[in-house]
Specification:
191 residues; 3-stranded antiparallel sheet
């Protein structure tokens, strides 16, 4: 039996031994989701994903819940891991969101490339362009290698050179990955 003290000063005694029990008390702990333990992260992998394969399995979840019970892991990360496992286990990462919302269920049976930042970026002449990047996953949730191709007004170039920006010319970055079902791609326009 362990006593948990919440940010509102209330305490609750409980003994959680399995992740399934954890789910049944989820509603009791929703107030914790707003605790200061919500930390930002730049890590594409959820801390429960010890295999770093963008899939959280039941064993990894149980291990992370035990870590949370020992007060060595944030509660909201444990809740998110539980949500991801109950959504199939595979997840994607959106760097524009704060943790734990940055990890979201990967759509089952669909390969995808997640474009970070806007699809269209306006860059003033001679300003630098920092590509916010992409992340790709195959239908099974495995991470795919992405190859970017840059064109200027339809002609291949090595990179985005913003010295040409503002002259009505458009760079297009096409991000391509080879999924089990064939090639997938997304594009970004740099004006």
């Amino acid at each position: 039996m362990k006593t948990w003290k919440y940010f509102l000063g209330e305490t609750v005694n409980m003994n959680l031994s399995y992740a399934s029990t954890f789910l049944s008390v989820l509603m009791l702990f929703t107030a914790i989701a707003f605790s200061p333990m919500a930390m930002a992260t730049s890590d594409a992998f959820h801390p429960a994903d010890t295999s770093k394969n963008k899939i959280i399995d039941q064993e990894e979840l149980d291990s992370y819940v035990r870590l949370w019970q020992e007060e060595d892991a944030p509660f909201i990360y444990a809740i998110r891991a539980l949500y991801l496992v109950h959504s199939g286990g595979a997840y994607a990462w959106d760097q524009s969101l704060e943790a734990p919302e940055c990890w979201y269920p990967f759509p089952e049976g669909e390969a995808q490339i997640q474009l970070f930042g806007p699809e269209e970026v306006v860059v003033e002449c001679a300003e630098s362009f920092d590509d916010p990047g992409v992340e790709a996953q195959d239908i099974d949730g495995s991470v795919l290698t992405v190859t970017p191709t840059v064109t200027l007004d339809g002609l291949p170039v090595d990179s985005v050179n913003t010295g040409f920006s503002g002259s009505g010319r458009t760079f297009q970055i096409t991000y391509t990955a080879e999924a089990q079902t064939g090639p997938i791609s997304v594009t970004r326009q740099v004006l």
